Automatic annotation (TrEMBL):
<dbReference type="Pfam" id="PF25601">
    <property type="entry name" value="AAA_lid_14"/>
</dbReference>
<dbReference type="GO" id="GO:0005524">
    <property type="term" value="F:ATP binding"/>
</dbReference>
<feature type="domain" description="Sigma-54 factor interaction">
    <location>
        <begin position="13"/>
        <end position="242"/>
    </location>
</feature>
<dbReference type="InterPro" id="IPR002197">
    <property type="entry name" value="HTH_Fis"/>
</dbReference>
<dbReference type="InterPro" id="IPR025662">
    <property type="entry name" value="Sigma_54_int_dom_ATP-bd_1"/>
</dbReference>
<dbReference type="InterPro" id="IPR002078">
    <property type="entry name" value="Sigma_54_int"/>
</dbReference>
<protein>
    <submittedName>
        <fullName>Transcriptional regulator, sigma-54-related protein</fullName>
    </submittedName>
</protein>
<dbReference type="InterPro" id="IPR009057">
    <property type="entry name" value="Homeodomain-like_sf"/>
</dbReference>
<dbReference type="InterPro" id="IPR058031">
    <property type="entry name" value="AAA_lid_NorR"/>
</dbReference>
<dbReference type="Pfam" id="PF02954">
    <property type="entry name" value="HTH_8"/>
</dbReference>
<dbReference type="GO" id="GO:0006355">
    <property type="term" value="P:regulation of DNA-templated transcription"/>
</dbReference>
<dbReference type="InterPro" id="IPR027417">
    <property type="entry name" value="P-loop_NTPase"/>
</dbReference>
<keyword id="KW-0805">Transcription regulation</keyword>
<dbReference type="Pfam" id="PF00158">
    <property type="entry name" value="Sigma54_activat"/>
</dbReference>
<dbReference type="InterPro" id="IPR025943">
    <property type="entry name" value="Sigma_54_int_dom_ATP-bd_2"/>
</dbReference>
<keyword id="KW-0547">Nucleotide-binding</keyword>
<dbReference type="GO" id="GO:0043565">
    <property type="term" value="F:sequence-specific DNA binding"/>
</dbReference>
Length: 418
């Protein structure tokens, strides 16, 4: 078996980091089997070389190796690309076409960005993984294929599963063995090594002397976050190689090529914060809304009772407590005399019922809230107005009729500008 160093050389992999070595060793171990492998890691960490190693060290090495970027193929054509189609399967399908799974029979398919596969394609893929069967688009004939699948993703698959974007069963089927490539910032010892290699490559390519970093610049390079990982490091090395006349690079020069990631951090934190604030704000809004609705229903019930039974002590108490509940006024010290509150009350027209169906709570919260506030307000205003009219503006009598204290009525008159 080839040594890990030989493999690195063969596939142009630079670095001696323990995490990187572990990933390569794992690829070498699983290569001779047909086990499905999922390669994970941030963007730009070098995931693409892993399936190549696996294919090259497997008994399929003389078979085809096809790399498919699942994220780059439009949803409408991906099934046809992967599994082929029959003539006439859709507009433009003038000929029967073989898909990658047919072409790569006895070979390896690398499904890059597998998290981007549409759910319908995921179902087809699951079937291939389970029994090697697939059906061309527009066909009913089941075909067989013998393909080894290596997939890669830079997204959190558990998140995707939780959001219903990726089938859990497929995830487990794809990730029998998972190979994780560590981010560049976790391979500090390799950063300068990679930079020197890229600098020398670009010096050759552009026929210029190689750039080199001074001591402080080297330190800056090593401490940087490298969110874009090795791809970003390579780009930075290329830009500096092309643009800087002075081939000794100082920290000041290097800084100009490194986006300020720490400067970006607070924005990210702020974003996530405001999002959670937003959702809790929305929850509060819903709560207020539903409290209002229940207040409104109480008011309705009260009006009905008034209409049916006149004002009983019970109703009066309920009314008072309702008003307190809505306006938060503590008037518990107010005492009513039973004989003050038994005057019959005229019937008032009821406002049309406002019902918030449970399913409505998710849309148009503002509209519903406004409607409810308005009708609650209107209804109360009307009750008070009518009571005052009937009692020729006498507040004491009107308050009595309404079953509220004079003080509350007085406050409401002011509030509603009656
Ligand atoms: N250890 C390494 N040594 C040399 N070059 C590397 C190494 N790792 C990655 N690269 C180079 O960095 C670039 C990015 O690597 P690659 O395309 O494999 O990233 P990736 O993990 O597939 O990212 P993405 O998720 O964005 O597709 C490539 O040009 C690759 O050759
Ligand atoms: Mg990639």
């Amino acid at each position: 078996m080839e040594s890990i160093q030989a493999i690195k050389q063969r596939f142009g992999i630079i670095g001696n980091d323990a995490g990187l070595n572990r990933a390569i060793e794992k690829a070498m171990q699983v290569a001779p089997t047909d086990i499905s492998v999922l390669v994970t890691g941030e963007s730009g960490v070098g995931k693409e070389s892993i399936p190549k190693i696996i294919h090259a060290l497997s008994h399929r090495k003389h078979g085809k190796y096809i790399a498919v970027n699942c994220g780059a193929i439009p949803e409408g054509t991906i099934d046809s690309e992967l599994f082929g189609h029959e003539k006439g399967a859709f507009t433009g399908a003038t000929q029967t076409r073989s898909g990658y799974f047919e072409v790569a029979d006895n070979g390896t398919i690398f499904l890059d960005e597998v998290g981007e596969l549409p759910l319908t394609t995921q179902v087809r893929l699951l079937r291939v993984l389970e029994n090697g069967e697939f059906i061309k688009v527009g066909s009913s004939k089941v075909q067989k294929t013998n393909v080894r699948i290596v997939a890669a993703t830079n997204v959190n698959m558990f998140e995707a599963i939780k959001k219903g974007k990726f089938r859990e069963d497929l995830y487990y089927r794809l990730s029998t063995v998972e190979i994780l490539l560590p981010p560049l910032r976790a391979r500090k010892g390799d950063i300068h090594l990679l930079f020197r290699k890229f600098a020398s490559d670009f010096a050759m390519k552009y026929k210029m002397p190689s750039i080199r970093l001074d001591e402080i610049a080297t330190e800056m390079l090593t401490k940087y976050r490298w969110n874009g990982n090795i791809r970003q490091l390579r780009n930075v090395a290329e830009q500096i190689s092309v643009l800087e006349e002075d081939r000794t690079i100082t920290a000041d020069t290097l800084r100009q090529y490194l986006p300020n990631t720490t400067g970006n951090l607070p924005a990210v934190i702020e974003n996530s914060k405001s999002e959670s604030d937003f959702s809790s704000e929305r929850e509060i809004l819903y709560k207020v809304l539903f409290d209002m609705k229940s207040d409104l229903n109480d008011l309705k019930k009260l009006t009905m009772e008034l209409m049916q039974n006149g004002v009983s002590q019970e109703v009066k108490d309920e009314n008072e407590s309702l008003i307190q509940k809505i306006y938060g006024d503590d008037e518990s010290e107010e005492i009513f005399h039973e004989d003050e509150v038994n005057a019959p009350v005229k019937l008032l027209p009821l406002a049309p019922e406002v019902t918030v169906m449970p399913e409505d709570k998710y849309h148009f919260a503002e509209d519903v809230e406004e409607e409810e506030t308005l009708s609650l307000h209107d209804k109360e205003l009307e009750l008070i107005k009518k009571a005052l009219e009937r009692n020729k503006g006498k507040r004491k009598a009107a308050a009595k009729e309404l079953g509220i204290s004079e003080r509350t009525l007085y406050r409401k008159i002011k509030q509603f500008d009656l």
